[in-house]
Design brief:
homotetramer, four-stranded antiparallel sheet, Chorismate synthase, AroC fold, globular, 16 strands, 11 helices, 21% strand, alpha+beta
Chain lengths: 363, 363, 363, 363
């Protein structure tokens, strides 16, 4: 991450989520409605539960944009937590008076000492020396990915100016590979109080040749994309092109033969096992990534765990509205990929204004 | 990468490979024989060809180490290219006199305009504006991974001081999953002039809880490991723990139940589908990663490609001694993982000398 | 900047200023009243004009803090721009309807094409391809330093836990070196519509030995402090210890002799020409920095400049309420130094919670 | 430092110095003779002692350059330490047999426990937990700046392609401001066994408008230059343009009025108090920096200090051949400034080959 830098903040039940993006060129059209529509996409998907309905996320752009266009200054985004009014006491930023029994009750009722397998709960509480696991899960919650989707939407606004667009599709939910079976599998899991994982594809098209580089390990685009996608909560695998299938393909079947079109004076391929990346660089074909998400760890089905205060075992089971969030995760995957590609584009073409980058790009 | 920084340099047929590592604490024992043994491991494996025999790599430590221990100063490593004496003219650093017919012949005979599918050749030549593809492939060659193995061996020297060790094993070659079949498959591919990919596991043990963090996307350990492993040439997939299998596991089967051992006063698991990482942090279990490598693109079996000078198609086939390099790739995978883990360890425990870090670590 | 990362955003007449801080350990007490008092200090000082009275800045902590303590999650700070309600149209984030004459008038009246010497105006407009200089000055304005003071106050909260505190004092205003003459000089300048620069000292005490390092250029603490201080708008010189006086001191007069106190078992100095930094590291003495600020470029006294639209010369003179802002700048200087020192402290001592860092620190 | 990354390594009496530069575009002409001439300039200057004659530094380019031009791959530079053959035992990388009395004697004779005021010695020994101060001073020695000069020469090769060139001149030595008095002052100091500091100017010309940026503190060019220059051993002050003089200039005298030349269609100034940088960006005028260097701490004149083993005081006096190194320091200053400017140029104009950057630059 050289040029498109960002930081996010915010808790699941805190006041709001924020993100500051630094390094954007000027004169990029930032479409608030588009960011909102991306946030909405993240909240949809078969198998999502109740909270998603509460939180119809809308972005508020606080800086860096004037009359709908970036100025080159950092862009600050804010997404309100609609549920905040119910959490002002237990999530208070300021110290609270714990000798007031109402306050003590409000705080105590939200305190958590029972750690969930599959979550940051236990390691986080040890690392940050917390006896209330709430101080961990409020930030490790997937709610944080809303900020990423908003940032990714800004990255997409930049990419769009160059005709580069991204999309995603769910490939697998549990053991199901088509929409009908997926729904059925989700319904069954929901009844059992279980949860499901799955996999999805992220695809970006119209990329120029030569984003990323082979000259140093940390400039390889596939590595940077892998980090970005693996950093999404619950993701356990990232594949490029043929991915794990590459293990069983011989060289003569794996590699994408190169052809030249004399009319358009450009190189092309008939296959894309490389997933658009060779030598850590885009090769002009679609960038195709596959991501596997594990099942959500918060569920009604009981799992053995330990109370970190008493050290006593208990059967972890939690009311949780989501059965499957693979569709939402795919939207986050698009966002993270867009961020990396925007960064790589800015790195390659330089420039401080859209006009300058376009000139460099077309040069 | 916060603390353990490094850069590598060097071409496949240049003078030598180098690496500078910055951020090492003082008083770490650096065992040259161990680094050499790691370099030797990278050169072995069934299915490797002739060049590997020429190049029995040995490291030369040029700085940062005195009487076998680090001083805190940057460590510079050098690995000679044994073949360099045959390449002094075509790989000359200085300009050469191309009007001398012998020199022109020596340079011309090594010039490459026929790009290989599956390599950095075409995108690299376009990106760096080169008409001689040698200027690309000399650096994009897997020879560069020797530097990484040397750097990774230094990282392992640091980890070893804390009882943390790593290993790898080949899981699959082509369609074969046991050693006998793997060898047979390699023999067959070799006869046909084809090449094979495969997959391997990298495992690190004895890690403390809490390396990495969930608080910001780029601090998640799984993301950082994914980048490091995906950045290895030819790698197309990285998985953590259950990896792609997680797609078909329900929540109740996926997550590793938590238990507490009152005697050792520590938490433990009976399963490790998480691969030792929850919430982007180590959870104290083994870190288990699976990596898929595609087949080597340089092979005798013909593939269609284009000459970038004439733009005419040709049938790419190259004499290449390696049929399969998955075993070597696994050693590189260990090295890259070791680098990330060493970095995360230094980040968490701070300290400038081994003694200080140990004190912090044990605290 | 390894561990204490932050980004700021916000325009002078936009909705608000924001900052996100990433890398804070948990369990640091964050005192909102203290941050506010630092913001108030930045707004004071003899020679400040009217706007400072409007904007009695108060911080709003949006995340990363619960019950007055950090959780390890990113901290988001917000400072409202009190004047925003008067700027909703000309500083609108959303596109506005310029065919509406009221809106066109509101926007047009704030448009600027006359660039001020000494400011980012001209270079910024060229760099970011803007015909309205407002798109530059809104971010290049010194208003942005309010965010830095808020971030610096958080850094001070961390340092305070280790007994490390900072302060500043004005050394010179124009040609005056004592308070009486400074005030007189400011009064005179104000009458003439001129502005004044000056210099100030920033001092931090109780620092441990060994923050920073000599092993690589970018880890030297003096360099990192110099960047942080020189990055404050209008700063033209940064000195450490004897600073520019070092040019005329011989070696026997410059260097601080070393003594050892057998009772406290510690080294000490009787002089501090080094300013507490030798070899790019703290040496245990006070860190003493001197910073020179140029006079504010916005003033009534006319300066020749050019209208970037018409390319015609004009006499730049602006109504501006501040005559001298050296006192405010000193507060910003403290903040930037605190940020660097907090970063260096975290780098040296590692640790994720205050308790862990304290243990490492005292070890 | 976004794009032009580098690491250096090497000890004063070790095998050699190295540097790896990453991020260079391809097709830059790298002139070895020019690098050598820069290294020679660093070794000259009135007041330098004997060692400089031994070490006529020559660079060896180990990678990243073919036929005199960069390929885009990392460039590794090496500078031999001519004195190494006399230090193979006391500076051995490998462990030595200390039970051999000859070896013990060779090592012991070079062991240092008496720390020099003004150096990294004491803080370094504490930080890195060393009882032999040699393990500190070998790296903290100004010898390391030879690597920086070599790296800076490569940066100059890049800048040269755009007509950007740098130079330096000594302004002051002790209390002397002209060459005659400087020499006299050096002679006197030498006789007394004392040392002298001074100051110098670094100037770069022909810079484009808009390198650096005001939008985030760490992108300001003045800050980045200040870090780079303050990171040079012995530097105690960095000034831009009017520098410390700015404290006493009123706004009407400080700021550089802006004019427009209708013929060349460009803006210009008649003064340059800004030193070529406004709002953290180049404004098209010469970049003018002033740097103050303290006197060399190693000298015959006695200073009180402490033996870190015995904790007993002693009178530090050392045979040292250099009386004054300001001229050499100025060459290092040029190098560091060149590195920052090259980085800022690559950041602004992007591009992977010289041809692409030139196109962007001229666009």
């Amino acid at each position: 991450m050289n040029k498109f830098r960002f930081l996010t903040s915010g808790e699941s039940h805190g006041i709001c989520l924020n993100a500051i993006i630094e390094g954007l060129p000027s004169n990029i059209t930032i479409d608030k409605a588009f960011i909102d529509s991306e946030l909405a996409r993240r909240q949809q998907g078969y198998g999502r539960g109740g909270r998603m309905q509460i939180e119809t996320d809308k972005v508020k752009i606080l800086s860096g944009v004037r009359f709908g266009k970036t100025t080159g200054a950092p862009v600050c985004l804010e997404i309100e937590n609609k549920d905040w009014q119910n959490w002002t006491v237990p999530m208070s930023v300021e110290p609270v008076n714990m000798s007031d029994p109402d306050i003590a009750e409000a705080v105590g009722s939200k305190k958590i000492t029972r750690v969930r397998p599959g979550h940051a709960d236990l390691s986080g509480a040890i690392k940050y020396n917390q006896d209330d696991v709430r101080n961990i899960l409020e930030r490790s919650s997937a709610r944080e990915t809303a900020s990423r989707v908003a940032v990714g939407a800004v990255a997409k606004c930049l990419l769009k100016e160059f005709g580069i667009t991204g999309s995603s599709k769910v490939l697998q939910i549990g053991s199901a590979f088509d929409e009908e079976s997926m729904k059925k599998e989700i319904d069954t899991a929901k009844e059992k109080g279980d949860t499901l994982g799955g996999s999805f594809e992220v695809r970006f098209i119209n990329l120029p040749v030569g984003l990323g580089s082979f000259v140093n390990w940390d400039r390889r685009l596939d590595g940077r994309l892998a980090q970005a996608l693996m950093s999404i909560p619950a993701v356990k695998a990232v594949e490029v092109g043929a991915g794990v299938q590459a293990a069983s393909l011989s060289g003569s079947n794996m590699h994408d033969e190169i052809f030249y079109n004399r009319e358009t004076q450009s190189y092309y391929r008939k296959t894309n096992n490389a997933g658009g990346i060779e030598g850590g660089m885009t090769n002009g074909e679609d960038v195709v990534l596959k991501v596997t998400m594990k099942a959500i760890p918060t569920m009604k089905q009981p799992l053995m765990s330990v109370d970190i205060k008493t050290k006593k075992p208990f059967q972890a089971h939690f009311e949780r509205s989501d059965t499957c969030a693979v569709e939402a995760c795919a939207v986050v995957g698009e966002a993270m990929a867009a961020i990396i590609l925007a960064d790589a584009l800015l790195e390659k073409f330089g420039g401080d204004s859209l006009e300058e980058i376009k000139k460099n790009y077309n040069g």
